[in-house]
Every structure is written in C-alpha cells, then in structure tokens.
C-alpha cells in the first residue's frame, strides 16, 4: 500500500488509566454502543492502515471528521476515515515508549482527538482502541 499523506494533522492524546476498583451502577457494553449507533466499528479499515487492534470511533468523530458534507465534492467517507486512521497510526508509531499520553498543540485548525486503549468488552479482555473527541473523554 502506498504511503499516503493524511489530509489533517491530528494531535492524539494517549491516556493509560490505572486499574482501580469500580462500583458500577449501570454497565453499557461496547457491543451495545455499536448496536445503538454511538460507536462505529472501523477495525477492517484500521487493519488496512496498520493498526492491529479492534478500532472504534464515536458518532461525534464520524459526524465531525468522516462524514462528507454536501459541499464536500471529490471526497468520500472511506478516504476520510483512512486518512484519520493513518494519522492515528503515525502518532502511535512516533510515541516514545513508556509514555501514557501524547500532548497536542493548541493550533485550532488541528483535529483534537483522544485515543483510548481498553478491553474490547466486559467479556473480552483483548485490547481495543476508541477514537473520540477530546470533550467526550
């Protein structure tokens, strides 16, 4: 696959949440969030871009950065998603080992996303990544 340049620069924050005791009142699984339309499973496209874990984006990320507006001639959602995931992969690869967070700059023209790695679901502990807007974290 050719090494394409993403259409946007994405400072992504990687946050590692330390284990803690959780007293859940209500549990909402990733599977339920996908079924309800709050998350989109983009794993197949993520694998094509070199991301090796199941990958999800929130509805807000899709609507803000992937969905093509009516005036978005010459663009398609697959290409925009691929650009977003390539930029995410590049940020992951450039991260220094041992860091739990990458700080982005405050340039308002840049996309500000948070990438969180957590278990795929309550009954499946394999790692999965969720991309969300910084205000969703």
Low-confidence blocks of residues: 1-15, 103-108
Biggest sheet, spatial arrangement of strands: 1-4-5-3-2
Radius of gyration: 15 Å
Mean pLDDT value: 77
- Major beta sheet, specifics? 5 strands, mixed
Structural class: alpha/beta
User: How many β-strand runs?
Assistant: 5
Helix content: 25-40%
Q: Could you give the distance between the termini?
A: 32 Å
- Give the overall form: globular
Succession of helices and strands: EHEHEHHEE
Q: What is the beta-strand fraction? A: 15-25%
**SS summary, helix count:** 4
Would you give an account of this structure?
- This protein is α/β, with parallel strands linked by helices and 137 residues long.
- The protein has helices spanning 30-36, 43-48, 59-66, 77-94, and strands at 12-14, 39-41, 55-58, 113-121, 124-133.
- The protein has one domain (35-136).
- 28% of the residues lie in helices and 21% in strands.
- Strands 1-4-5-3-2 form a five-stranded mixed β-sheet.
Task: Describe this protein with a few key phrases.
single chain; disordered N terminus; five-stranded mixed sheet; 137 residues; alpha/beta
Task: Set out the fold topology.
Blueprint: E1 12-14, H1 30-36, E2 39-41, H2 43-48, E3 55-58, H3 59-66, H4 77-94, E4 113-121, E5 124-133
Parallel strand pairs: 1-4, 3-5
Antiparallel strand pairs: 2-3, 4-5
Structure described in brief:
The protein is of the alpha/beta class and 137 residues long. It contains four helices and five strands. The protein has one domain (35-136).
